Amino acid sequence: MIHFEDVSKTYGDFHAVNSINLEIKKGEIVALIGPSGSGKTTTLKMINRLIEQSQGTISINGQNIFTQNPIELRRNIGYVIQHVGLLPHMTIADNIAIVPKLKKWEKTVYLQRVDELLAMVGLDPEIYRNRYPAELSGGQQQRIGVIRALAADPPIILMDEPFSALDPISREQLQDEVIRLQQKLKKTIVFVTHDIDEAIKIADRICIMRNGQIVQLGTPEQILRHPANDFVREFIGEQRMGKLETLPDLKDILIKPITARPNRGLAEGINAMRKHKVDSLVIVDQNEKLMGIVGVWEIQNHFDEEHLLLEDIMRRDFPVLSNTNTLSDAIYLISKHRVAYLPVVNADRELLGLITRASLVDVMANQFGTSQQRNGGVSTAC
Ligand SMILES: Nc1ncnc2c1ncn2[C@@H]1O[C@H](COP(=O)(O)OP(=O)(O)O)[C@@H](O)[C@H]1O
Ligand SMILES: [Mg+2]
């Protein structure tokens, strides 16, 4: 679809982009990533001829873009930049409709398109079409930037650090939005980012650049598993490359259980569950020794029997881990018994914490650099 053949961009003797070869396929999202000054923006802007290459050939669908009228070319390539570039004196609808108008679409057609695009990114057209950019939040403005690039339905979209000015929440939302839109629209998207997590999340293939050259091109999986050299390894972060043998110790990933004393009533039990948003309680004696577990269904089933205490309905027979077990033991037991969590005790059967399915997922995710919460200790809820 987009083909770079031995393309360079020089400023005097300096190579901003140095002899790159790259084939971007139809319908894929390619992330250009690398340190500042590595030539990402230059590479991107050569695609819509905002920058002319000094050497080599760029073609789109087999046609050399050098032979095309640059204005016409740009109308068929959506372009999203970091600071949206919405025109402040124009309404949102007019901003979105810029290219459709240039393409001389009928007014009714482009107005309908504006509404459709606003709805697509969750902005009510009735409310937003006549507003001005300054009346929108940064995240909303950036959404408009994205749908403006989609307005005339171009087959190619270029994005240059489109979300990097946003707060982390808007940023995540917009990333999700782009993934969702792409599943529907199947555009060919080239986007520049310096955030490897963003690239891994959104891109089908990642193109890692350094000093104007391509260091590695591959799927996120390929790059994470087989970084081409130390530069890539460092760039993607060593912490992502965790292997099973480097799994953390069981004791380091224990989460804090919600516990209750055996002599409490069922209403108290339900109350503690509700308060702590859990569906089971670990029953411990006054020495924090593990006695049993009670799930919300057990309480439900016996709730009418007012004289019953938690110790009367608790399960005493369930899998338990000792603190000398390993994380692999935990994974094995949790899968074997199909339980949501396992209590972990010491040699005196004192409760140290829980390993949950969710915390195991966290550990796995942590091998890929995602943050993980670590709690420890025991506190009794009732
Ligand atoms: N007009 C220019 N004149 C001279 N050098 C430039 C010009 N534009 C970009 N460069 C240089 O080219 C290199 C690549 O720039 P750019 O593609 O913007 O990097 P990135 O987007 O990866 O941060 C940088 O070293 C930059 O300083
Ligand atoms: Mg740049």
From TrEMBL:
Residues of the CBS domain: 253-309, 314-371
NCBIfam families for the chain: proV
Keyword annotations: ATP-binding, Nucleotide-binding, Repeat, Transport
Residue ranges annotated for the ABC transporter domain, each copy included: 2-236
Coiled coil segments of this chain: none
Keyword Transport: yes
Family the entry assigns: Belongs to the ABC transporter superfamily.
Cited InterPro entries: AAA+_ATPase (IPR003593), ABC_transporter-like_ATP-bd (IPR003439), ABC_transporter-like_CS (IPR017871), CBS_dom (IPR000644), CBS_dom_sf (IPR046342), Gly-betaine_transp_ATP-bd (IPR005892), P-loop_NTPase (IPR027417)
Pfam family, one: CBS
Organism: bioreactor metagenome
The keyword Nucleotide-binding is annotated on this UniProt entry: yes
Any one cellular-component term (Gene Ontology): membrane
Protein name: Choline transport ATP-binding protein OpuBA
SMART domains hit by this protein: AAA, CBS
GO MF term set: ATP binding; ATP hydrolysis activity
Gene label: opuBA_2
